[in-house]
Amino acid sequence: MNVLIRATAFAANKHRNQRRKDADASPYINHPIALADVLANEGDVADEAVLVAAILHDTIEDTETSMEELVALFGHAVAEIVAEVTDDKTLPKAERKRRQIEHAPAISRNAQLVKLADKICNLRDIAACPPANWTGERKREYFEWAKAVVDGLRGVHPVLEAAFDSAYAAKPSASSLA
Questions:
Q1: I want to staple 15 with a disulfide (CB 3.0 to 4.6 A). Which of 28, 42, 102, 173 is the partner?
Q2: Catalytic one among 48, 61, 87, 141?
Q3: Taking a C-beta distance cutoff of 8 angstroms, is the pair 86, 60 a contact?
Q4: Range of 101's domain?
């Protein structure tokens, strides 16, 4: 079976009871699929390990998936990329966000691609269908934080960086705070 399809089925099962924070509570699996789509179809990324890691990028962080399970099912290369983009949920949110900014320049190129696609997709989602309870100020804060993370990734993929910059341009203005 194609490993990308197998990873999508695996992620869909792991995220099956999760929803996004938008008003429609969209199925969570839409998010990892969007990352793979951005990488493949906007960034022309063909590296299978990167695309599979994009599909699986939140499994360790947000589901009952272990690193060992990913290694056994998808190999070391994919599991390592996922590990590099996984936040330590035992830390406070502010510390996790600080660490993402700090570590972005030091992660592998493949992990940087996944991280960049994640930020692109998140900004697009916040602009198009924001979390139901987020104020304009919280949206703006997220945009600024995402930019700080992506600034540490500059040079990894100019086309995807331009896509990020375009998504960032949709940042809520001070007059739109609600």
A1: 28
A2: 61
A3: yes
A4: 3-176
Report pLDDT digits (tens) over 12-30. Answer: 999 999 999 988 899 999 9
CATH value at residue 51: 1.10.3210.10
Q: Is 42 a catalytic residue?
A: no
Phi-psi region of 60 (alpha: psi -120 to 50; beta: other; left: phi over 0): alpha
Residue 61 annotated in active site: yes
State if pTM tops 0.90: yes
Write out pLDDT tens, residues 154-177: 999 999 999 999 999 998 875 544
Domain count, the chain: 1
CA 29 vs CA 8, 19, 98, 120, 138: distances in Å: 8, 8, 26, 16, 24
Residues near 81 by beta carbon (within 8 Å), at least 6 away in sequence: 49, 50, 53, 57, 108, 110, 111, 114
State phi, psi for 173 to the nearest 5 degrees. -85, 165
Q: Which residue of the set 62, 69, 87, 141 is catalytic?
A: 62
Contact 160, 120 (CB under 8 A): yes
